[in-house]
Every structure is written in C-alpha cells, then in structure tokens.
Write a structure and sequence with these properties.
Layout lengths: L4 H4 L4 E4 L18 E4 L3 H10 L5 E6 L11 E2 L5 E6 L9 H6 L2 E2 L5 E5 L21 E5 L6 H10 L1
Parallel strand pairs: 1-2, 2-3, 3-5, 4-6, 5-7, 7-8
Length: 158
C-alpha cells in the first residue's frame, strides 16, 4: 500500500497480509492508526500495537510463534475490540489464541472474539491485569463443540 506525504495525515486504518516483520521498515503515521487487520507473524502485530497507541480495533491472526517468548507483555489503553483467529492451514496455530492474549493487557477491551480453526481448543483461563474488567461481548467461533468444563473455567476467570 503506497502512502504518500499528503495521505499520511488521513490514514486511520491499516491492513497487512503476509509481510513478515515488514512493518519495522514501513514509514507510516503509526500514532494515527485506530484500526488494524493483518496476518503478520506475532512479532509483527505486537510491534504494530506498540507503535500505534491510539489503536481501537484489531483483527490479528495468531499462531504458536516461537518468537513469542522474547516479547514482554504490553498494555494498550485504547484497544476496545479485538478479534484473534487461527489459520486453519498452519500447523503452528493451535494454542495461538492463548499465546497471543498472554502478551497484552487491554483495560479498555469491551469485545473479544476468538476464532479457532483446529480441534485443539485452548480457552484462556486468565487475562492480564484489567483486561476482563470491562468486557461486554465475548465470542467463540470453533469448528468443534466447546466442552462445558471450558465454559466453567471462563465463568470463574471473568
């Protein structure tokens, strides 16, 4: 997506597909972005969220990225809507939802949608800090039934 100087002031949303770590080399008005959708590797979208403090809405593909261990949890004060989803074509995706959520504290989060593509469904048993405090909408999309024991865990955790 070419972004010229005149367009920089107006950019509010950004979509990135398959540019592994490409965001580190992009000169965009990160601080102005309020919406992001992408399937970059985990390190890429963590980098994007850190560069875009005003981000309000994000849709991110999650995976069991081995790089996850090198990122410290970070807090994003304005993100209120988050969709994390697995890629059914990736063998690294199972468990990616939990791995992704373990890196964020999202005190403004009101809507969380988790979409699973694999039979190994892992539901978060806790969320960082104040993440679940204002949650109003919680959605699970799964190709398989979610067992009642997972629902019980959720009622205790949220």
């Amino acid at each position: 997506m070419p972004v010229g100087r005149g367009q920089d002031r107006e950019r509010r949303d950004f979509s990135l597909k398959g540019a592994n770590k490409g965001t580190r080399r992009m000169s965009l008005p990160w601080s102005q972005l309020t919406e992001y959708a992408g399937n970059d590797c985990t390190g890429g979208y963590i980098d994007i969220l850190n560069r875009a403090p005003d981000m309000e809405i994000a849709s991110i593909q999650c995976d069991a990225d081995p790089e996850l261990g090198i990122f410290l949890p970070s807090s994003h004060q304005r993100l209120h809507t988050l969709h994390v989803y697995e890629d059914e074509g990736s063998v690294d995706s199972p468990g990616g939802v939990i791995n992704s959520l373990s890196h964020f504290e999202l005190p403004a989060l009101k809507s969380l949608r988790m979409s699973y593509a694999h039979s190994l469904i892992r539901i978060p048993t806790s969320l960082l800090g104040l993440t679940a405090g204002g949650l109003k909408y919680l959605s699970f999309d799964a190709p398989f039934a979610i067992s009642s024991e997972f629902i019980g865990i959720l009622s205790v955790c949220l």
